[in-house]
Amino acid sequence: MIPRLFYPLCFTFILLTKSSSVLSAEKSKSIFDMTLSELLNVEVITATKAPSSLKTVPATVYALSSKEIRQRGYHSLEDFLKDLPGIDFVDMQGTFPLIWAPRGSYGDENKRTLLLIDGVVENNILEGNVLGGPQYSLHNVDRIEFLWGPASALYGANALSGVINIITRKGRNINGSELEILSGSYNTQAVKFLAGQQTDNIEYSIAGSVYQTDGPVFKERNPAYSASYVDNAYSVTGRLSYKALNLGYHRYDRPMGYGQFFNSANEVFGLPLFGFANSEGQAIDNSLSPTEINGQPGTLWHSVTETAFVEWTQSVEQLNFKEKLYYRNSEIADDSYSYTLIDGDWAFIPFTHFSELAGVKFEVDYQISSSEQLILGLQYEIRNVETGYRRRETVQNTPLVFAISGERESTDYKNASSFGQYRFRPVAFQNTSITLGARYDDNNVYGSTFNPRLGLVYAEDSITIKTLMASAYRAPNSFDLFTETTVRIANPNLKPEKSNNFEFSFGYQATDDIFLESILYYNRLTDMIVSNVPIGDIDNDGAVETQNQNFGKADLYGVEFRNRFSIGQSAKLFFNLTIQEADSKQSQQQSPTETRVPNTAKYKSNLGIDWRLDESSSLYIAARYVGARSTAATNPRVEVNDYFVSDIAWNYSFSDRNNTSFNLKINNIFNNRYFDPAVRSADGLTFPTQYEYPGINVLLSFRLDF
């Protein structure tokens, strides 16, 4: 249940915001009131760090406003991502809970994509990945932008395959309070609030959310399956501005189950085997309990991230200065645990890690002229990163119970970087813009990297042509570098993974209501970190040791067709088709192998329609088709079948209060049963071969503004 104290807390903030005089809130246009040309020229910032037209930025970018988020019934980051083209997904209904791979770059468990919230990186510090979930509520989002392809020339480490940029709502866009209550399938409940104002030189916003669900029940795994629960995940966000000074704080806290990440040991419960050839669910050591043990959930994965920053901005004629000091920490909280099968009995195994960082960033934006812009920046960051999960000791033998025992062991990372970007339009070619950029990062642990960028964009009334070239990198994390097992030894000499990308796109606005775009891309990944490479019997104990090494390569290439249509002010449509190839090679010394990148589909398409029924209500219908997907070499399934799924959202706004609304969201409206290929070994033993999606499910939300 949602904590009772959360409701009076929401109403307290609402009353406080009503007691002061406010300026009128800034209003943004509805998608239905915008022409296709206006939608194509929406300003975005992710691709260049400065406001630029979507049509002319040197990258492939998609942007969605707060109004579209509400109309489409998006509640979480995962809702937004699943309607984007060219991305492969693995949804395990727990732990991550969604793994995504833009343009075939699978294999990293969300380590090659950067998540930004108001310009500050949100990725987990130790592992470098994005642990999503319902704590990232979208009720406080002014705009989300997604950039496909490398962006390390601007953002540094881990901006290898894409960037997700969340821009939160400012006080001037709120000027009042909002309260949202959500209820739905699987005993899902959520409460969200938002308040903000701007008065003279002071502006503030504060937002929060609490979300809980029992989660879907995958009965094949266990009739009492309960591993996809979320136990009061919450978010707190605050922003305060006074003249040129901005203060920010946010915390995202998510206690949830492992979901389908590990296999269920059905044999232990006297249940039949399931899955591939009815061979999964054996009593294999390291399987996790899918249901309660000793009155506790079988697993708890409690991820927490916390950020605070101070930002100063100043403009002097054509110069804009920005300086930001920030502090972050991320952890798997020390109440996390799993009931793990060891020698036929359920062992209680706790786990935790904590890492933190502090940094400073300075940027200057020089608008040389109407056709020239120069951005320069310096950044310095210090990280204290735990080297892995903390050590444990046995405190009880029957049943086996462990407790955290070891002292926290950590490594200090120091990273200094400088970057620059020069954009200009040649005098003789005013329809052409050229972007030159580069970033240099020097790290005391894994060395230095240099990542250049070139973008050529030609844009006139009906035609847009983009040619883009860039490199990027993923930094090896402490797990990659230092974590050891009984047979794996550390490799502190790992290098960053590298990406070299080429992209060409042609966009044509055939009429005022039709825009057609074709994108060709090629991405070469090198020095990919391959886990557990055999290196021989190093210590002469008769066992072959392994090590993480830079032995992987991949060639990712494809074509995307992105089409947008407008039917007056009644409807907006999109249709996307992606055809891709993703081939990998592991150049191990004695046995090089070439395979298709696992968990990727050659064909994907998606369709969506935003349809205004009348002045008060709208309908959003989305459908996606995903072709058959490849699997890991250790997965006994050669491939996982294709699927088609469709969702629908109905939004009703009261005519006298534009921001007061109902939203009904139905996912998987045809109740299709479909699967994603599983991660890691996916051998059907410790790890399942595939993950099942939930059937039809419903969410109803009521939103009231004050």
Describe the structure.
- The structure is a single chain.
- The protein is mainly beta and 706 residues long.
- It has a single domain (31-705), classed as TonB-dependent receptor, beta-barrel domain (Maltoporin, Chain A).
- 6% of the residues lie in helices and 53% in strands.
- It has a 22-stranded antiparallel barrel.
- A hairpin with a 2-residue loop joins β13 and β14 (245-256).
- The longest helix is centred in the first third of the chain and has 13 residues, at 6-18.
- It is globular, with a radius of gyration of 25 Å.
- The two termini are 26 Å apart.
- 46% of the residues are buried.
List the helices and strands and how they pair.
Blueprint lengths: L5 H13 L17 H5 L2 E2 L7 E2 L6 E6 H6 L5 H5 L5 E5 L6 E5 L10 E5 L2 E2 L19 E8 L3 H4 L6 E7 L2 H4 L1 E9 L3 E12 L2 E12 L16 E13 L2 E12 L42 E18 L2 E14 L4 E6 L2 E6 L2 E17 L2 E15 L5 E5 L4 E4 L5 E15 L7 E12 L3 E13 L3 E12 L3 H5 L5 E2 L7 E15 L2 E23 L8 E23 L3 E16 L6 E4 L6 E10 L4 E10 L2 E2 L8 E2 L2 E11 L7 E7 L7 E3 L12 E3 L4 E9 L1
Parallel strand pairs: 6-9, 27-30
Antiparallel strand pairs: 1-2, 3-8, 4-5, 6-7, 8-9, 10-11, 10-41, 11-12, 12-13, 13-14, 14-15, 15-16, 15-17, 16-19, 17-18, 19-20, 20-23, 21-22, 23-24, 24-25, 25-26, 26-28, 28-29, 29-30, 30-31, 31-32, 31-33, 33-34, 34-37, 35-36, 37-38, 38-41, 39-40
User: What is the strand tally?
Assistant: 41
Q: Per CATH, what is the topology? A: Maltoporin, Chain A
Helix content: under 10%
- Quick one: overall form? globular
**Cα distance, first to last residue?**
26 Å
Q: Any idea what the CATH architecture is?
A: Beta Barrel
Please give the count of helices.
Answer: 7
Low-confidence stretches: 19-26
User: What would the average pLDDT be, to the nearest integer?
Assistant: 92
The main pleated sheet reads as: 22 strands, antiparallel, barrel
What's the CATH H-level superfamily name? TonB-dependent receptor, beta-barrel domain
Structural class: mainly beta
Count up the domains.
Answer: 1
Report the radius of gyration as a whole number of Å.
25 Å
In percent, how much strand structure appears in the residues?
Answer: over 45%
CATH class: Mainly Beta
Family: Belongs to the TonB-dependent receptor family. Hemoglobin/haptoglobin binding protein subfamily.
Protein name: TonB-dependent receptor
Main location: membrane
Subcellular location: Cell outer membrane
